[in-house]
Task: structure prediction
Amino acid sequence: MKEFLCTDKDFKDIAALVYNACGIVLGEHKREMVYSRLARRVREHRLKNFSEYLAYLNSNKDKEFDAFINAITTNLTSFFREPHHFEFLKHTIVPQLLNSNKVAKRVRVWSAGCSTGEEPYSLAITLADLFPSSWDVKILATDLDSNVLAKAQAGIYTAANVNGLEDKTLKKWFLKSKDGHTYKIKPKLNKNIFFKRLNLLQDWPMQGQFDLILCRNVVIYFDKETKDTLFKRYANALNNSGYLFLGHSESMGKEHSEFKNLGKTMYQKQHNARTV
Result:
């Protein structure tokens, strides 16, 4: 018997709140996950069941809603996850940018769904030695979850988190604690990374366009209508011939003619693609 009662109506109400807030679809197969994550919130507020928690949530949205969304969202990541993306960045995208942007000397990359920071730091490590110091290279890292965003900004990881990184990478970009249990990102790496909280379904405050957007293992939680809208918005946010990377289990339909499918969940914006 479960600690707290969660009725069918409770689950439907939770699913509706999450979908309306951030477009994540919670099917029946997610019910156990929802229960386990929100039970902590019910317990913390010393409530009797999920119905009481929903009543509390509706009465205290300014205080509780962020914690509610943070509890639901999934944050699984690692350094240089899906390494073929970073190889393509290094060997194909960077040489193109060095040629096409040699006058402006400006590069913009967006990690959309940066989780605890491993992705934007992996990007920064990849780019750091490839552009001359005179170039203006910046990485925007956004996430809906304020808790993981704070962890990303702190840039402190356990030995298990950095397991698999080369020793030379650790020595160059991380400060190892005296006990060897934690590794902190060096200031020289995160000085050009800007962490911001952002709901992808709401307005985007960014004015400029990007050369590369990574939205990996994010759209898998959205329904088709939300995905289609997001892909069009990404096309609008990319420079001509800019790139979009999705996660390994995600894909884009052929109807999105504004993108060319390069394989391995990599897409390039068609030059002068018409978007709405």
